[in-house]
Design goal:
- By secondary structure, this protein is mainly α.
- It has one domain: Up-down Bundle (Glycerol uptake facilitator protein), CATH 1.20.1080.10.
- The protein has 8 helices and no strands.
- One of its GO terms (cellular component) is plasma membrane.
């Protein structure tokens, strides 16, 4: 592994860990502060969106995808190589799990408690496709439209909104989905619900690739900065 790839992997691990701490930790805090489920979701969505904005701004110069679907889309578009994609996805998965464990421990819960919250059904599966298509389109559209400086705000705002307009509350991220199995709290998802969520997220990513190529045919390498660093991931 090159030093450059190592830095990117560390950024992905740390960023995904903090993202999951925000998702799970704010969910735990919300349930402790209020008995109103709507208010709990509002608090959870605001914290997640705000954390995403901050994390992307801080880590974008190195790597700030925090999402295996985004990394796979980059690979399909030829923006990164297969080895880099595999390393970054492994870092995202590890970071997600670490973030959930830390969130549990910060609230004096068991480090790992397998979630019992079942999530599924045609509506929620469709929601994961929609949420993932929108997320990937927001990311690549922002960058390919020469608005890479705004991608953090676009992504954070989109995810905060998608918590509310999708029936699944917009997981839209395999690393997030797998990690949330490890906390039997507000943001958790039961292991039996994970496979279909991830399948729908991958389908959403595939649809998004077609849309990105259709809408931005002349910007195939817009994610790559002149020095070879990714501009968004």
């Amino acid at each position: 592994m090159t030093a450059h790839l190592g830095r990117k992997a560390v950024a992905e691990l740390v960023g995904t860990a903090f993202l999951l701490m925000a998702v799970v930790g704010s969910g735990i805090m919300a349930t402790r502060l209020s008995d109103d489920v709507g208010l709990q979701l509002l608090e959870n969505s605001i914290a997640t969106g705000a954390a995403l904005i901050a994390l992307i701004i801080a880590l974008q110069p190195v790597s700030a995808a925090f999402n295996p679907v985004v990394t796979l889309v980059e690979r399909v578009l030829g923006l990164i190589g297969t080895r880099d994609a595999l390393v970054l996805i492994a870092a995202q998965m590890a970071g997600g799990a670490a973030g959930v464990v830390l969130a549990n421990l910060m609230f004096e819960l068991p480090a790992v408690s397998v979630s019992t919250t079942e999530r599924g059904g045609a509506g929620q599966w469709l929601a994961e496709v929609v949420a993932t298509v929108g997320l990937v389109l927001i990311i690549f559209g922002s960058v390919r439209g020469d608005r890479s400086r705004t991608v953090a705000f676009a992504v954070g705002g989109y995810i905060a909104a998608a918590y509310w307009f999708t029936s699944s509350t917009s997981f839209a991220n395999p690393a997030v989905t797998v990690a949330r199995m490890l906390s039997d709290t507000f943001a958790g998802i039961a292991p039996g619900s994970v496979a279909m969520f991830i399948a729908m997220q991958l389908l959403g990513g595939a649809i998004a690739v077609v849309l990105v190529r259709t809408l931005y045919p002349a910007r195939q390498r817009a994610l790559v900065a002149p020095d070879g660093d990714d501009a968004t991931a």
